[in-house]
Amino acid sequence: MNLYDLTLTRALELLKNKELSAVELTQAHLDRSEGLQKLNAYITETPDRALADAKESDKRYADGTARVLEGIPIAHKDVFCTKGIPTTAASKILHNFIPPYESTVSQKLKDAGTTMLGKLNLDEFAMGSSCKTSAYGPAINPYKRDGDKTDLTPGGSSGGSVSAVSAGLIMGATATDTAGSIRLPASFCGIVGVKPTYGFASRYGCIPLASSMDHPGIIARTVKDSALLLKEIGGYDPKDSTSTPHKIPDFVANMTPSVKGLKVGLIKEADIKGLSPEIRDLLRTRAKELEAQGAEIIEISMPHIDYALAVYYVLCPAEASSNLARYDGVRYGHRTKDPKDLQELYVKSRAEGFGEEVKRRILVGTFVLSSSAYDAYFLKAAKVRQLIANDYKAAFEKVDVLLTPTTASPAFGLSEEMTPLEMYACDIFTVGANLAGVPAISVPAGFSSTGLPLGLHLQTNLFEEQKMFNVATVLESISNGTKKPSEII
Amino acid sequence: MDLKKLENLAYLARLEMNQEQLEKTAPNINAILDWVAKLQELETDNVEPLYSTAVHALPRRADHPDATSYRKEILSNAPETDNHQAFFTVPTVVE
Fold first, then answer.
1. Is residue A226 annotated as a catalytic residue, yes or no?
2. Phi, psi of A119, deg, nearest 5
3. What pLDDT sits at residue A265?
4. CB < 8 Å to A422, chain B
5. Chain B contact for A379, CB < 8 A?
6. How far apart are CA A418 and CA A424, in angstroms?
7. A80 found inside a domain
8. ipTM surpassing 0.85, yes or no?
9. Taking CA atoms, what residue in A is nearest to B73?
C-alpha cells in the first residue's frame, strides 16, 4: 500500500490507532514530492520543518494531546502569508518577501495539528486559469490524455494546490477562489475543490486579488476530506472586517448523504454553445441519477448569469489595481537597481516585478476607475452584480442546490496559445458564486473520452455548506470519478 | 483606447512601458473593453450597486491596546533602510 494513496480520513484513523506514525506519513509524502518535482507544484518546500512538526505530532499521539488533524501533511497556496517562510504570490515582485506574520487560515490549520510541506504554485497574484502566468513556471497536471504525452494545465489559479493533491504529494491544500480558481483546477485534476460562503473564512494574511470576491477554500481528494479541512479554516476573525460571525457545523458528523426530496436546479442559461457535448451528456446523466435517488430536477432561469464574466472583468481589475498599488519597491519586495528618482523607483520596480497579465489587469482596472469611465464601467458592473445576486436569491427560493458543469472542457495543453478573453471564458460556470458570495464545490463526476477528469459544480445558498456537502457526497458516490494518486501518475 | 491614452494610464498606474509594449497591450485591452461593453445592454437605472456580499454589521472589538507589528520585523523586508535601520529610504525627494 502506498501511504500517499490514503485519504485524509483514513490516515487519521490509522494515526489515532497508532498503526501509522506521523513521521512515516510525512516522509512518504516528502519522498513522493521528491520523485515528482517535474510537476512544479511547489514554489517553496519546507521538508525540515515538516519532519520536525511530524515528530511533535507523534509525541502528541503518544501522550494523548493530539489535535483534530494531527500529523496530516498539507501545503498552502503561496498567497497565504507564513511567518518566516517566503511567500511570493508566484510573482517576481515578491521573490524575496518573508512575511513577519501568519495568515489566519494557515495559523488555524497549524493549530489543528497539520504538517505543512511547503508553499504551492499558482498563477501570478492568482490571475489566470492555467497556472501559466506564474513567474516560477506553471505547475503541471498529473493527468495526461490517453496515449498522449502532452503536458496539460492543472488549471488555475490554484494549479500547484490541485497538482499536488491529485498526485499525492499532500493530502489536502489551501487555495483561494476569486472567479473559479479553486473549482476549475480541481475539475481539471479530478479532485474536490470547495469555495465556502464569502466571510466563512478570514482573508487576513491572504495576499489579495479582488477583496470583495476573494474566498479562501480547500482542495482535497474526497468530499469528506474537504469538509474536515474546511471546518478548521472557518470562523469570524476580528482581523478581517468582512469575515462573518457564524457557527461552523461539524460537517462530517452531520453528513446526511441523501438527496431525497431535494430540489436540484439546472440553469437554462448554463447550456452554452461552447460546452463540450460529453460534459453536457455527463450533466444530464448525473442529474437523472440524482432524480433516481429521490431528487426533484427543476430547470430554472437566471437571466443575468450570462453577464457574470463581464461584471467580473470590470470589478476584479478595478479592485486588483487598487490592491496592487502597495507593491511600490519601497517597503518590501523587488526594487529596481539605482533609480535616479522616486518616480523611476516606482515605475521600474513595478514594470520589472509584475508579469504581463498582472499589468493588463492593473491597466484595465485603472481605466474603469478613472473619472471618465467610472459610471459606464465600474458603477454599471456593480449594478449588474446586484442583478446577478438577485438571480441567485430567486433561484434559491425555488431550488436547494444548483447543478452545472464546472468547466466547458477538460484540461487543455500547456502550450496551447489562448487570447486573454479565451482564457477568461474558462470561469464561465464558476464566477457567479464569487459575485453573489454563495458556497460552491466542484466534485469529480466522470472522465472524458480521452481519459481526463470532468467535474460537476454544486452551489447552495449563503452559509448552506452542510447541504452542499450532503449533495456533493451523493454526487461523488454515484460518479466514481476519483482515482488514487498511484493510478494517475 | 489609443496609445496615448494607454501611455497615460500606464503613468497613472506607475508602470513603465515602452512603445513596443504599448502597441502589444492596446489591442488586448480594447478587446476586453469591447467585450465588457455588453453590460450596457441591461437597464440598471433603479438598481443599487453591489460592492460586497458581506451581510452582517461590523462587530465591535474591545478598546484595548494590542501589539501588532514591530519595526525590526517590518524593516527586515525593506529593500533599503538608513544606516541605523530605523527607516525605509528612497531616492532624495527634496534637494
1. no
2. -115, 135
3. 98
4. none
5. yes
6. 10
7. yes
8. yes
9. A100
Give the chain A residue nearest B21 (alpha carbons).
A356
The verdict on a CB contact (< 8 Å) between A380 and B44 is yes
| Active site annotation includes A157 | yes
Distance from CA of A316 to the nearest CA of B (A): 11
CATH code at B31?
1.10.20
Q: Is residue A274 part of a domain?
A: no
**Res. B55: pLDDT tops 80:** no
C-alpha cell, A306:
450570462
**Given this model, what pLDDT does residue B45 score?**
96
- Asked if residue B30 belongs to a domain, the reply is yes
Residue-wise pLDDT for A102-130, tens only, equals: 999 999 999 999 999 999 999 999 999 99
Q: Which residues of chain A have pLDDT under 70?
A: none
Catalytic residue among A21, A91, A157, A321: A157
Q: Residue A425's pLDDT is what?
A: 86
Tell me which residue range forms the domain holding A449.
Answer: 3-257+440-488
- Per the CB < 8 A criterion, the answer to whether A460 and A438 are in contact is yes
A75 near A164, Cβ under 8 Å? yes
B77–A100 CB contact, under 8 Å: yes
Is B21 inside any structural domain? yes
For residue A423, give how far its alpha carbon lies from the nearest alpha carbon of chain B (Å).
12
- Count CB neighbours of B71 within 10 A: 10
Question: Which letter does DSSP use for residue B81 in this model?
Answer: B
What's residue A180's pLDDT? 97
Fill in the amino acid letter for A3: L
Q: In the block, which residue shows the cell 477554500?
A: A217
| pLDDT tens track for A336-358 | 999 999 999 999 999 999 999 99
- Considering only CB atoms, B61 lies closest to which of A238, A362, A380, namely A238
| Res A336: pLDDT | 98
Ordered strands of the A215-220 beta sheet: A42-45, A115-120, A73-77, A172-177, A215-220, A192-195, A440-447, A453-459, A401-405, A263-267, A296-300
Cβ contacts of B48 on chain A, cutoff 8 Å:
383, 386
Residues 6+ apart with CB under 8 A from A287: A264, A266, A297, A403
CA distance B84 to chain A (A): 16
Q: Is A108 left (phi over 0), alpha (psi -120 to 50) or beta?
A: alpha
Percent share of chain B, pLDDT over 90: 76
* A398 in active site: no
pLDDT of residue A88: 98
B48 located within any domain: no
Within a domain: A18:
yes
DSSP helix, strand, coil percent of chain B (3-state; round to 5): 40, 0, 60
What is the number of domains present in chain A? 1
- CATH number of A128's domain: 3.90.1300.10
Which domain, by its residues, includes B11? Answer: 3-40
